[in-house]
Amino acid sequence: MKSVLFSRFFILLPWILIVIIMLDVDTRRPSPPLTPRPYFSPYAAARGGPRLPLRRAGPVRGVEKLNESRQQPPPQPQLPTIYAITPTYSRPVQKAELTRLANTFRQVAQLHWILVEDAAARSELVSRFLARAGLPSTHLHVPTPRRYKRPGLPRATEQRNAGLAWLRQRHQHQRAQPGVLFFADDDNTYSLELFQEMRTTRKVSVWPVGLVGGRRYERPLVENGKVVGWYTGWRADRPFAIDMAGFAVSLQVILSNPKAVFKRRGSQPGMQESDFLKQITTVEELEPKANNCTKVLVWHTRTEKVNLANEPKYHLDTVKIEV
Ligand SMILES: *[C@@H]1O[C@H](CO)[C@@H](O)[C@H](O)[C@H]1NC(C)=O
Ligand SMILES: *[C@@H]1O[C@H](CO)[C@@H](O)[C@H](O)[C@H]1NC(C)=O
């Protein structure tokens, strides 16, 4: 009996030592990343506020360890998931744009990226990219029919609809978890604050967009907390004179309006947003975000067309490099 116990003890001993060593190595890791949690949160900053600089100093960390409760993240009962639908297509700057976007999204909690390629199949470039992006994501593809690939026609209609269809299918059976959907084109620039604003969307929320419509910004005009019109330099007669980057919709609204999609038929250029929003909401119902629509938190940036004038016709380099 005793010898059995002894042999068990010696079998376990090395494992215990390994665990102790691993725990020790873990606590000696180099300083933690600047933000303690992988997303931006003014709450966290406010909580830790003035103490943050101290955290970086070695000895203080040890003291803080004594009171674990202070390091616990605040309880966040069911933070609504943000679903970002991004249509994308193959072009020289594609990977650069997706990299910028992923670097932003990686700092947002509870974000699910729905990347929809305009292609007959998933490309290797995007597949590899997503596999390494470190983000919860879904990779879809749908080709735009040839007849719609003309200047003057709205773009990414099929891709956005594929994202909507995926969302509806995914939540078909279960009771909808709280969620918010927005359309994140891959050429825009997003402030992290924007995600905090949109996360509290009850039905449909709106906010200003910078560098769009031939102006420095466009914005919903707000009076007494309600949207009453639009500040825009282009087609002010649109029912919702807003860019794709200027609104978010709650998952519940998407699910309870199963037929709401982006339309090809009868849709005029620039009317995609209005055509879609008309199906799910009214101007009176819109929830203004970003300080009653007085802050620009997203910019409709455009990457300059790259100069490939000196690119050789045939592959000349000794290696093949993905760009
Ligand atoms: C740890 O911190 C909490 C909250 O700041 C405080 O209520 C508690 O008394 C502290 N415990 C110890 C042992 O200092
Ligand atoms: C927006 O305006 C309404 C009505 O004027 C006001 O009650 C509310 O506090 C404002 N919201 C913000 C975030 O400033």
Descriptive key words:
2 domains, EC 2.4.1.135, Glyco_trans_43, transferase, 12 strands, 323 residues, three-stranded antiparallel β-sheet, binds 2-acetamido-2-deoxy-beta-D-glucopyranose, alpha/beta, Nucleotide-diphossugar_trans, seven-stranded mixed β-sheet, 18% strand
Report on this model:
GO terms for molecular function: galactosylgalactosylxylosylprotein 3-beta-glucuronosyltransferase activity; metal ion binding. The protein has 323 residues and is an alpha/beta fold. It folds into 2 domains: 10-65, no CATH class; 81-299, Alpha-Beta Complex (Spore Coat Polysaccharide Biosynthesis Protein SpsA, Chain A), CATH 3.90.550.10. It is built from 11 helices and 12 strands. The chain has a 7-stranded mixed beta sheet with strand order 3-2-1-4-10-6-11, with helices on both faces. Helix 5 (94-105) packs parallel to helix 6. The structure holds 2-acetamido-2-deoxy-beta-D-glucopyranose (NAG) (2 copies). The site of one 2-acetamido-2-deoxy-beta-D-glucopyranose has 3 residues, from loops.
Q: State the domain count.
A: 2
Give the name of the CATH superfamily of the largest domain: Spore Coat Polysaccharide Biosynthesis Protein SpsA, Chain A
Q: What is the fold named in CATH at topology level of the largest domain?
A: Spore Coat Polysaccharide Biosynthesis Protein SpsA, Chain A
Mean pLDDT: 86
Which ligands does the model contain, each kind named once? 2-acetamido-2-deoxy-beta-D-glucopyranose
Poorly predicted sequence stretches spanning 5 or more consecutive residues: 30-60
Spatial separation of the terminal alpha carbons: 66 Å
Count of helices? 11
Rounded Rg: 25 Å
The proportion of residues in beta strands is 15-25%
Summarize the amount of helix as a percent range: 25-40%
Q: What's the number of extended β-strand segments?
A: 12
Q: Which CATH architecture of the largest domain would you pick? A: Alpha-Beta Complex
**Oligomeric form of this entry?**
single chain
Shape: globular
Helix-strand string: HHHHEHEHEHEEHEEEEEHHEHE
CATH class of the largest domain: Alpha Beta
Report the major sheet. Answer: 7 strands, mixed
Order the strands across the largest sheet as they lie in space: 3-2-1-4-10-6-11
